[in-house]
Amino acid sequence: MKKFILPFAAVAMAATPVVATAADAQRSSQPVKESAELAGSSLIIAALAAAAVIAGIIVAADDDDDDFPVSA
Question: Where do the structural domains in the chain lie, given as residue ranges?
């Protein structure tokens, strides 16, 4: 199964930049009428990022070694 999926994943990774540059999108900008209401969200984003890093460390450091030593 791995030998079947790996070439497709490699082609998808190689083709992604080509597909992204092929479609030029026309964007129109509008003037900003009001200031963004997300001014205090940087603290929330930082807290979520810190929680994600801590969760990643805990998952990576978790020792799920179920192979208990057996004496004969």
Answer: 5-61
